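User: My collaborator sent over this chain with a note saying "see what the structure looks like." That's all I know about it. Can you take a look?
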Amino acid sequence: MERILLTPGPTPLPETVRKAMARKMIHHRGADFAELLHNVAEGIGYVMGTSPEKVLIFTASGTGAMEAAVVNVLSKGDKVIVVNTGNFGARWKQLCEIFGAEVIELKYDWGCQADVKDLEIALRENPECKAVFAQHLETSTGVENDVKKMAKLTSQSDAIFVVDAVSGLGCVEMKMDEWKIDVCIGSSQKGLMAPPGLSFMAFSDRAWERVENSDLPKFYLDAKKYRESIANRQTPFTPAISTFFAINESLEYIKKKTLKKILAKNAVLAQGTRAAIDVLGLELLPKKPCDAITAIKVPEGVDGKALLKKIEETYNVKLAGGQSEYKGKLIRFAHMGDIGREDTLKGIYALEKALQEDKNFRVKELGKATETARKIFKSGDS
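Assistant: Without extra context I'll predict from the sequence alone. Here is the result:
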C-alpha cells in the first residue's frame, strides 16, 4: 500500500503528472522544448499573478531561487531588511550575510505573524536600505505574512520587495503585479503538484534596475543569462526536461480546475483539520494560521519524534515534524497540491490512534475528531 504523503513538500503527484515524467526525452535546443518552456512560463505567470515574459526558470531547489534573488539584486555592502518569522526567514538572513549585505533583522517568535508597523519604522529609520526580504508563507510555522501590505509600504521607498513564495504559490492568493511585489520566487514541489527540481522567479522593472547594477559574483544563477535565453525560448544551461514535462501537466490541471477552486479546497481542508485538532484538545503554534499548513504543538509529555515515527510505520501516513528549535515539538499537516479529503481524514485518524496508544495522552472519544473533519469536508468543495 502506498504511503500517504501529507508533508508541505514534496507533495503527492497526480497520476497524470507522474505519467508525464515518463515521456520520451527531447532535446533542450529543439522546437519541442521551446514550446514546452513557453507553456510552463505561462502557467507560472498565471499562478504568480504576473506576465509569462517576466518568468525565469532554473533547474534548482527553492533555496537556489532564494540565492539567485540575493546575488542578482544586491551589491556588496548593501543594507537590507530581513523579516524573520521562522526557519526560512532565517535563511534569507544567512544568504544576505554570506554575500556581504548589512542585515537589519525584524525577528519574531515562531508562530507569530510579522508586524507591518515594524517594517514601516525600519524603512523610515533606514532610507538607504536597498531591499526587504520576507516569506509569503513560513513553512516551518504555518504562518502567512501580509505581503500585500508589506509590498505597498515598500513600494513607497527606494527599497525593492523580495518575497519567498515557495510555499504560497498555488496554496494561497498571490498577485505579484497588482500588489507591487518586485521579486517573487517559487518552486515546483509544493502547491504546484510537481516533483522537486525546478525553481522560478519574476522581476519587476524596478528590480531589473538593481540586477543591471549588481556586483555580486554569479554564473549559473545569473538572471541576465536566463532573460536573454528565455527571449529565444531556451534556457542558458541544460534543464531538467522530465520535470518540465511534469510541471507543464500540473499547471494545465491548475488552469483547468482554476486557481480559485484550488485555493478554496485548501481552505476547507485547513478548516476541517483545525476543527479536528480542537476536538483532540491540541494547540496550534500560529495565532493566525494559513490555509496551506497546520502546525500543531506536540502535547506535553508526548515524544514528538516517536509519535511521528509510529504514525508513519504503523498507519502508513507521513506527516512533517518541526524544524530547528522546534524539532520534536511540532506536527505539520499540509493542505496543498494534490492532497485531498480522504487522505487528510486518514491522517487525522492516524494521529488520533497514535495519541490514544500513547500513555501520556488521553483521547476522550476515538474517531470523533475524524468525524468532525469529515462533516466540514462534506459541506465544502474539497
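A starting point for your reply to your collaborator: The CA atoms of residues 306 and 365 lie 22 Å apart.
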